[in-house]
Model the fold of this input.
Amino acid sequence: MSGPGDQSDVDLMAMKTDPTITDSLPRGRALLRDPRCNRGTAFTAHERSVLGLDGLLPPAVLSLDVQTRRSYEQYLAQSDDLARNTFLAAVRHRNEVLFYKLLEEHLQEMLPVVYTPVVAQAIEHYSTEFRRPDGVYLSVYDIDGVESALRNYGLGAGDVDLIVATDGEGLLGIGDWGANGMNIAVGKLAIYTAAAGVHPNRVIPVMLDAGTDNEVLLDDPFYVGNRHARVRGERYDALIAAYVECAQRLFPDALLHWEDFGPANARRILLDYRDRACTFNDDIQGTGAIVLAAVLAGMRVAGTRASEQRIVIFGAGSAGVGIADQLRTVMVADGLDADEATRRFWCVDRQGLLVDGMNDLRDFQQPYARPRSEVAGWANGGSIGLAEVVAHVRPTMLIGTSAQNRAFTEAIIREMAAHVERPMVLPLSNPTKRIEAVPADIINWTDGRALVATGTPWDPVACRGTDYVIGQANNALSYPGIGLGAIVARATRVTDGMLLAAADAIAGLVDVGPPGAGLLPNVGNLRATSSTVAVAVARAAAQDGVAQADLADPVQAVQDAMWRAAYPPLELER
Done:
């Protein structure tokens, strides 16, 4: 597999400089309508003449830098963040290089608009605002058509590094939005490119449409997806199997990224395929890696070790349990046996504290269920809520993946802080309206002692003369580098060692010395973070024996692979 920055690869779609292929580019209006090739007013006079553009553009020739400045002014003029999201989508549909140049130069500012939290609004409006298809739509009612649909995207066996697929059931904190979920796959890939330089013409967004249980969509005349309740069971599994089989066969070097599947399927699918495909679930593994990075930094501040932690997780879905799994691995590495490490977690979900014998426990929750005899005296044997768990456990760490706004009350946080000098509180749910607690409240309720990271961006909090930086546990700090590292290494699998290497690399970028320092790197420097993570992941892939590429210099290999937004020169006959 040639990397996304491999200049030896003849890539027509990327408009390489080989003069023998430029005659095959679109001409005239067709060229201006192709966002992969269009550069608008940046076409020179000679290029306009040769490519049939004379008279189709105003006479001024403007550089990419000038185009970017103008687009940024237009971006700022939009009325709100949703309008800005729509504007950026329009730029992308017109001129991909300009879109990524704009995103690269203003990544910290635009990341919340392109992805979380604003993408949640864009998902809800996807069918209403629908303008053009983008990606591959696979239907549960046309399993035999999966292969032809993937082929119709127009890429060959060596042309694809990454595929992001979703079924739209567990989107962010907003739940089931069916085919509207295509927006999450497109947004994820945009961040892969902007943050890690994964080539935008070597990726595919995929919507696995199994229907939706969202009645608002089923009653919406504009809804673009399959208009029926979600199909589950054997037919659903057949769609997933057909997708994986065809994707592996047609694009053998591609990393298969799973995004925002519902709790009944996310972990099950990952476990089914992780040992037989190069596959990765960001909600489980990416979230676990970034939270682990924050925890590693937090333990450095607190002067504690993994083996000393008592952890309460509020929201024991695929993300919450995925976090527990990765933290448990570090506890074992710090000297605990697997059973003892598992007993350091108390997981609370809709039914309260998970205890053995519950009828509705999911398979991945069962290892973390507490013995019923242990909690016999709690809540008189009934459902045990978060407040009572915190009071009994006295946790060192409280993690929220529940999407329940303000579930971490003042009483709960004060109770936790009464027994722990530097409590770690991580309300990770997004969008912002779903967060378990506002960072300013947590800081003030603990007199500045709490170590806080969140899933959405927040301004620093002033308390007692110190400005506390709120680290954002944004998966954009982890998954782009994990993906790039796997691509550069040509990994056959994504191993636990690769994920731990990513977390260690992220934590190593944090200076925890200054008072009020954040627990995670600033998202404004994502390119540097992603390259550091990618190098660590590529090395771990080699150590774990899953790398097919022989990387004599992983640092240079990662740099060479990172695509940057620029118009490549065109060599045209005079």
User: Anything to note?
Assistant: Residues 434 and 503 are 25 Å apart (CA to CA). The radius of gyration is 24 Å.
